Amino acid sequence: MECVVEKVIIGEIPARKIITKRVPGNKSLEWIQKRQQYVAKGVGNITPVVAKTAKGALIEDLDGNVFLDFAVGIGMQNIGHGHDAVIKAVQEQVESLVHPCFHVTMYEGYIKLAEELAKKAPGTGEKKAMLANSGAEAVENAIKIARKYTGKPGIISLECAFHGRTYMAMTLTSKVKPYKNGFGPYASETYKIPSAYCYRCPYGGAENCNMGCLEKVKNLLKGELSPENIAALIVEPIQGEGGFIPQPSAFLKGLEKICKENNIVFIVDEIQSGFARAGTLFASEGCGLDPDLMTLSKSLGGGIPISAVVGKTEIMDAPAAGEIGGTYGGSPLGCEAALAVLKVIETENILAKAESIGKQLKKRLQSMQDRFEVIGDVRGVGAMYAIEFVKNKKTKEPYPEIIKRITEYALQKGVIFINAGIYSNVLRFLPPLVMTEEQVEDGMNVLEKAIERSL
Predict the structure, then answer these.
(1) Do the record's keywords include Transferase (predicted)?
(2) Residue 421 region, left (φ>0) first, then alpha (ψ -120 to 50), else beta?
(3) Measured distance CA(221)–CA(98) in Å, rounded
(4) Helix axes 212-223, 249-261, angle to 10 degrees
């Protein structure tokens, strides 16, 4: 039976509403049953929502339920769902050129986007870019470029890292389930180093930080690994799937220094943290980094598949013609969408909006931390925030069980939250940077009630 459960009105601002007895409603259930019959089981779904339309911070499902979205496709829609500028750019492009393949015939959009990214990338020196389709492809190509440039095979990644689901990217990822389990053997010549997980620091704690994690890396390169064998080190400035763990600037700068001293290519993965999410165009800027290479994707295309590797010209030019790229890499549609996204970030004050949303999230989440014993840590940069749930604040024992209860309650009230963390005990927040103050407040009110009901 269908009935009105909850409808929220925020002045003239579109808001969440649930009109079915439960989510999913009957129309969505029909398609979920077909999904179970025809779509491979291994393709996961975080929510049972079957989307029909989406705009700004809202998603409407087939049954007419409207959800306030704090996930935006896992950080794919920083400027909001269905931004008019992106839609217009794609519509105009599809009428003239869909995809001739850049390797066969060049087109303006690819070159324009490469120029924009090269100019906007942080750090010193002249830069170039190559375009691909997904974040994982960008990582794979960055590794190829680094190996070609250095003539060395070894690749270092961090604990708690996530770099994608393709073979090399999966190998560099930390969390075994669901990303790596049963898919081995993994790529050879890859090594793990500690991340700066300050909340769970094994080197004396964040209050007495002596950069033990960095010293561990230095010792590894002296006793266990030879720098002469290492081509690249790849790091997320804010670890995403690992639990939204901001890596301290001192740690990142230390890794960069080690790389420079040992002819190791310093790769910064900005796939989730880039394009205004951290309050700067790239999170690297806030840390004062000088990356050799950067991997980019997710919000770059505003929902249209596209990714990039951007880096120093000398390194980017190491592969010969034909050695990197792909048939659909840097499609005309993706390029025009990306150019529109970059313009929106610049002209609609998106960086300031990220900072404002982040401050609002931080205030509300810290208030909840004071209230609830189960919230062990609140952390984030810009509008990339998370809370880590524990059974006890002193022991910090992970509490993943509560996440399902919280997200299910919130979904039934029309708010989408998603989890993260190597212990699956982190709730992460990736609100679109066009979300209003009223919408943020509404979402946090639902969250607070969800935690209260889940204890």
Answers:
(1) yes
(2) left
(3) 48
(4) 20
Which DSSP letter does residue 250 get?
H
**Cβ pair 11, 438 in contact under 8 A:** yes
Measured CA to CA, the distance from residue 348 to residue 346 in angstroms comes to 6
The total number of residues written for the chain in this structure: 455
Specify the amino acid at residue 289.
L
3-state secondary structure of 200: helix
Domains, in order of start, for the chain: 6-35+52-63 (no CATH), 87-347 (3.40.640.10), 349-426+446-455 (3.90.1150.10)
| Helices (H) then strands (E): counts for the chain | 14, 19
Whether residue 52 contacts residue 62, with contact meaning beta carbons closer than 8 Å, is answered with yes
Nearby residues of 76 by Cβ (< 8 Å), 6 or more positions away: 298, 299, 303
The distance of Cα 236 from the centroid of its chain, to the nearest Å, equals 9
pLDDT tens-digit series, residues 234-244: 999 999 999 99
- Hey, how many other C-beta atoms are within 10 angstroms of the C-beta on 384? 27
Instruction: Note whether 274 and 238 are within 8 A (CB).
Output: no
Helix (H) or strand (E) holding 87: helix 84-94
Break the chain down into helix, strand, coil percent, rounded to 5: 40, 20, 40
Assigned token pair, 240: 């995403």
- Token pair of 323, please? 């050695």
Each residue's pLDDT tens digit, 84-103 = 999 999 999 999 999 999 99
> Rounded CA gap, 365 and 385, in Å?
9
The reported pTM is 0.96
pLDDT of residue 208: 73
- Compute and round to an integer the Cα radius of gyration of the chain: 22
Distances in whole angstroms, Cα of residue 172 to Cα of each of 102, 190, 235, 251: 29, 7, 10, 19
Expressed in angstroms, the distance from the first to the final Cα of the chain is: 30
Q: Tokens at residue 52, please?
A: 């029909």
